[in-house]
Design brief:
The protein is of the alpha/beta class and 292 residues long. It has two domains: 4-84 and 207-288, Rossmann fold (3-Layer(aba) Sandwich), CATH 3.40.50.1000; 89-204, 2-Layer Sandwich (Hypothetical Protein, Haloacid Dehalogenase-like Hydrolase, Chain: A, domain 2), CATH 3.30.1240.10. It contains ten helices and 14 strands. The radius of gyration is 19 Å and the shape is globular.
């Protein structure tokens, strides 16, 4: 039986307005009252998830956060962190070389410090977009905590003394459509995940939301067969594959829909709530067969 519900945030639990549909929130509340555990599995850090886990009341039970694509686990009941592998200084140098090769911005995420690595011309283009269209030069990464920093790096080799949790590559969607496979070949030592049309994330090999969920399930005395996971992008693929029931949103990338057991409605149509309601109505066997 399903005992754990795991949710990606952007494009999944959050609608297009970056909010949780009240119907979805109600369904999750019913599942928690039925004894199910909830995991927020996101590329964000803990403070970046606060606006979600507080309204859901996850701090009051045996619930978890699988942060930075599964690299960091936070246990609400024990108030403890678990850290998996990180990127090393030499990895940072290799990825900077790739940024220069492709002319793409790299954002090196080190705890609450975000380091922007981009050419002078690229920085000027960002400033123009900020002036004309109001697009934040920090991509909203500073939101969520007062002590976050978005720091511009000099466009040369920079050696990091902090752990690098992940690196985000930012460019136009058409750039990634054209260069994604070449980037993956050049970065074959890492897990390379397209999480949005213009946003690529580089993680240590083998660190994923799925690996975090497996640890959480075992900690609670369950297996991955007792996990239902919801997602929409490449950083959700392994999680959707390994979960007992993997659910792709109606707005998900085709790759996510292909590996999922169930495809539900979109994040703007209470897709999660529809599946949870079916699960609580006793239709788990049907969901495992891909029928909502």
């Amino acid at each position: 039986m399903i005992k754990i519900l795991a949710f990606d945030l952007d494009g999944t639990l959050l609608n297009s307005n970056k909010q949780i549909d009240p119907r979805t929130k109600e369904a999750i509340g019913k599942a928690m009252k039925a004894g199910m555990h909830v995991v927020i599995a996101s590329g964000r850090d803990k403070n970046g998830c606060r606006f979600v886990y507080e309204p859901l009341g996850l701090e009051k039970g045996e619930n978890f956060l699988a942060l930075v694509n599964g690299q960091i686990i936070y246990d609400f009941a024990k108030k403890e962190y678990d850290l998996d592998d990180v990127l090393l200084p030499e990895d940072g140098l290799k990825i900077q070389e790739i940024c220069r090769k492709y002319g793409v911005e790299g954002i090196f995420c080190c705890g609450y410090d975000f380091y922007s690595y981009v050419s002078t011309m690229g920085r000027m283009k960002k400033a123009v977009k900020n002036t004309l269209f109001g697009k934040p030069v920090d991509y909203g990464l500073k939101a969520g905590a007062e002590n976050r920093n978005f720091i511009n790096l000099p466009y040369k080799e920079n050696t990091f003394t902090q752990d690098i949790n992940k690196v985000c590559l930012v460019h136009a969607p058409k750039f990634f459509e054209k260069n994604l496979e070449n980037l993956k070949n050049d970065l074959h030592d890492y897990d390379v995940l397209l999480v949005g049309p213009g946003w690529l994330e580089i993680m240590p090999k083998g660190v994923s939301k799925a690996s975090a969920l497996d640890k959480i399930a075992r900690r609670l005395g369950y297996t991955m067969n007792e996990v239902m996971a919801f997602g929409d992008a490449e950083n959700d693929l392994v999680m959707l594959e390994k979960a007992g029931i993997g659910v792709a949103m109606g707005n998900a990338m085709e790759a996510a829909k292909e590996v999922a057991d169930v495809v539900t409605k979109t994040n703007d149509e209470n897709g999660i709530g529809v599946v949870i309601d079916s699960l609580l109505d006793g239709n788990e066997d049907l969901l495992r067969e891909g029928i909502i």
